[in-house]
Amino acid sequence: MAAFLAVFFFTAWNTKNAHLRACFSCLLQILRIKMIKNSKNLFDVLEADILETGFIGDTSIPKLVWLASHTRKLGNPVSLVIQGPSGSGKSFALKTGLMFIPDDDYEIFHGMSEKALIYSDDLDLKHKHLIIQEAAGLAEGNGRTFLRQVLSEGEAKYRTVESIDGSLGSKELHIEGPMGLMMTTTASQIHPEDASRMLSVSIVECDDHIGAILMAQAIGTRKKLSTQRLDEWKTFSKQALKKDIDVEIPFAAMLADKLPRSHFRIQRDFQQVLSLIKASALLHRCNRERRENGAVIASLTDYKIVYELVSEALSEGLELSVPYSVREVIDAVDELSSLPRKQFEKVTQARIASHLERDRSVVSRNVSKAIESGYLVNDNPGQGREADLRIGQEKLGANRKILPHPSELKDRT
Hints:
Layout: H1 2-14, H2 18-37, H3 42-52, H4 60-69, E1 80-83, H5 90-98, E2 106-109, H6 116-119, E3 128-132, H7 142-153, E4 155-164, E5 167-176, E6 179-185, H8 192-195, E7 199-202, H9 207-219, H10 227-240, E8 247-248, H11 252-257, H12 266-283, E9 296-297, H13 300-317, H14 324-338, H15 349-356, H16 360-372, E10 376-378, E11 389-391
Parallel strand pairs: 1-6, 1-7, 2-3, 3-6, 8-9
Antiparallel strand pairs: 4-5, 10-11
Helix pairs in contact: 1-2, 2-10, 4-5, 4-13, 12-13, 14-15, 14-16, 15-16
């Protein structure tokens, strides 16, 4: 059989017959999609292809975007907000993840007025993700309320009064879900009501990451991934979600028992974690056990995948973990405060930026985070004033994880 296939492929590849070459190309694509489908860990394959697009650095965010997109048909689609300074690569990371997703699975906008969502009768968002390029482009007011409602409840209704043929009449507007949301923002903090409904992930802010990007800009990057390969991923996604298949998580109760009870937000975070685990199991179902009724049984491998993608972000969201970039400015304030200094000399953001050799806008963003969390205090607050920073009452402890390590769970199938 192998010899026959080898002869067939060799003949088809070298033939001048257009029809035979087309058949060969189609068969090859089917085989490549089947190879994706049968992969023991899709994310190893996906990571290699992401890097082939010319993406530089940590691939966690594009992989998370891709996985979250496959929760769109579940009861609780996962929503994401990608945070980072201007020019840090937030939009690029989001767009890279979307490259591997069918275009029909999302609607993308650069901005949206306050009530545009509720009035968009032509916009079908059921089982899709709404992509907002920048959170600032989403107007405040009732628009945010409608969006929060549809993310939490799966729908939003709004009754208004309109003039019809000179007479006033009431009209009910309706957004039908469930749907998810993905957006980027330069803000150091987003509204708590939005944050509790989304997973917040941050772009890595480190010298090595910036250095890798600069080097790529200097020598250029070769994009090797073909459009055909992206189409194979999109076809795989369509096939994976074509049928409604139940997923069981046998270790869900054990996982719930190990989560902290210190914050109400953990309830929503846990729902999103379960949705991501289910999506991973669905995508890997060729390598997962099944019940007699066809339900897919998620394994600890699925949990490990999700743990590696969101554990740090979830811990930072509940302030059990402090990002390195924020710890850096806190340590800088501590160091500068202990140095001999002239009378009236303050620990300003400019001094921190000089001490760390970092851009002032990035330092300002991280200082704001530290102040909001109580790790720093500004004794000279106010717009346009030069900050006078000192260590706050909140003590910086060791980072803790919300999610238990995969080794702490047992696979009970």
